[in-house]
Amino acid sequence: MLTLASDFGTPYPAAMRGVILRRTDARLVDVAHDLPRGDIRAAAFWLRELLPYFPPAVHLVVVDPGVGTDRNALVVRAGNHALVGPDNGVLFPVARELAVDAPLEAFLVDDDHDDLRPERTGRSRGQKSTTFHGRDVFAPAAADVHETGVDSLETLPYLSLTDDWVDLELPEATVDGERAVGEVLVVDGFGNVITNVSGTYLEGREVVVANGECVPVGETFAAVEPSERLATVGSHGNVELDVNQGRGEAAFGLEAGDAVVLEFGDDGRCE
Amino acid sequence: MLTLASDFGTPYPAAMRGVILRRTDARLVDVAHDLPRGDIRAAAFWLRELLPYFPPAVHLVVVDPGVGTDRNALVVRAGNHALVGPDNGVLFPVARELAVDAPLEAFLVDDDHDDLRPERTGRSRGQKSTTFHGRDVFAPAAADVHETGVDSLETLPYLSLTDDWVDLELPEATVDGERAVGEVLVVDGFGNVITNVSGTYLEGREVVVANGECVPVGETFAAVEPSERLATVGSHGNVELDVNQGRGEAAFGLEAGDAVVLEFGDDGRCE
Amino acid sequence: MLTLASDFGTPYPAAMRGVILRRTDARLVDVAHDLPRGDIRAAAFWLRELLPYFPPAVHLVVVDPGVGTDRNALVVRAGNHALVGPDNGVLFPVARELAVDAPLEAFLVDDDHDDLRPERTGRSRGQKSTTFHGRDVFAPAAADVHETGVDSLETLPYLSLTDDWVDLELPEATVDGERAVGEVLVVDGFGNVITNVSGTYLEGREVVVANGECVPVGETFAAVEPSERLATVGSHGNVELDVNQGRGEAAFGLEAGDAVVLEFGDDGRCE
Prior knowledge:
Three copies of one chain form a homotrimer. By secondary structure, chain A is an alpha+beta fold. Helix content of chain A is 18%, strand content 29%. In chain A, the strands form two sheets. In chain A, strands 8, 9, 10, 11, 12, 13, 14 and 15 form an eight-stranded antiparallel β-sheet that branches. Chain A has a seven-stranded mixed β-sheet with strand order 2-1-3-5-4-6-7, with helices on both faces.
């Protein structure tokens, strides 16, 4: 199984599908191709939330604002999964989750290696482009990794083990007594504001003070009237600031990266 | 074969795909993941138009504005198809079409049953979330239904036959002589205004009076000039109010649920 | 393998998937369903860029502004690929690329043939609609072509060899010394302005005069600061006018079909 994730929108992912299907009969599964464009941190969050639900697979990830520069290309072995993508950190939050107790191993891709150039009908293989390494580097590599198997990455002629990569840690909230200081990780397609504060802090509460304003806590969107705001625990386990049948990011005036201060104890302020 | 339909947009459907692929090797086919958000009636219309073209399959449907409330989860056996989704009526217009002459049978899902919780790498199975039953209830159930087979639903430990469900009938137009009183079922992505009036009433007509205005009847969009309005018979067999290479909903000022009165006989008014 | 491309958006492609899956177990691969709506030339460009990366396959293409008129339906044999779609030219730029040195052969589809009508549960096969030949003509034909095999198209009862079709050639730029006169073929989803001028003319240049304005030449988007304009060689090998982390079509004020004059030699004007 080979999954594909990118921020390409349309129709560029089709070129990757074609390149892959020349090299492998693997089942292809699209994760998403409209990840927030060029937003490495948001992509890292979504991949960490989504890929652990898959069975062992090769995961192609192309969110690559540095395409064509001297940033490296990587294959990461994480338990019985493999990740293929740019060396900009996007692979590592999910890789740590997939590796469980196994060590991560990263392989540097020699992206000028002839074996990586995609085949196409009507023209001979060319040089790799400077703007579409998804097609010219990562898709061929992901197909080869699938065919070779995650346990045999050492046999691919263009891979070499490395301990030097760009890491990324998603920011964690700090909690001091009844006050959490965190931030917005992403806004989802519904307008839900997903913070990095653990949802466990909402347990047993009827109200929370979010950036100075009182917000009711609800287990479900339907706990408040349509168009009303609420704080809830999202499907990823974090505090979300939402609007029932509306857009939380507009109602709260928040976007990815904004600071969020949640106060849990001061229910009295909200009466 | 297992089809997936939702109003999730992106990237949440990927979590459902992963959960399903841990449980079955079934072929997955996306119907759509951008059904009109939270619009049970529109989803019911589209599913009724689309799913009958598929061979026998399990159809996962998640348009679920009541997620996390006490609404039930259902599996419906409809002929040699099965439908899995929330008990809000969305499944029944298409279920009646798929069942043909067989009786419908509905099964209540015990959505707290441990067997339904999805597996994931890196963490043990948790409780079901209150906001994403597509991942935590419906996707696992659909995969299990596929593996068990539509004829053996009784053997799934979390299903129990029920005759108590939320039904939904799509509204039908009333026709009195040369006058049809109906409504807009949906506006499609082209801006075409799809009504619930049968297209048979347009046969042999050159013009129709729609909400008081004369509109030419055409067999094809190209029957009128670009940007001109027309009434035509859509691919679902109903009257559509469209604009050639333009958006009918803007030109007619209509949206889903609006009343539509069509007069067929009064061609004289339009000269 | 059977690929699907259209300008339908959502959810109409699902009807084509269902129709096809009643007739064949072929692997289905989506190319894109949001090709620029009704834009035959843009679709022809994208298909020419994308489909050659696929292994031999049947390619269903529905960009069909003339649906329901008397335009014909075609199957084109191009090397070991087959293309199925409307006779409006959209198939031929890619067909020439896929055929390599083999002759193209085109077959006229008798689209009133009973064998083409799709099956569906709950109703008998009807007449073909006037607005959705993707479902009622092209999808069934593509499935049959897949089952019959590209070498045996002559055996399909509704196909007849023809040498009369609507051709389309994508416009080529004219280059005179250090001046290229071309046009914008398409604007992609990133806002990149893709011209029909070969990228080879940018080799060794630091600057180009595009429609009278000096623009730096860069190998990668990152060659200029965010929000700055550049000319680069796109992944298709043509000159693109882009903005790093921004939208080239807005910055250059260009859209598909606009003229583009590039001057390569007059670096002095730009100092």
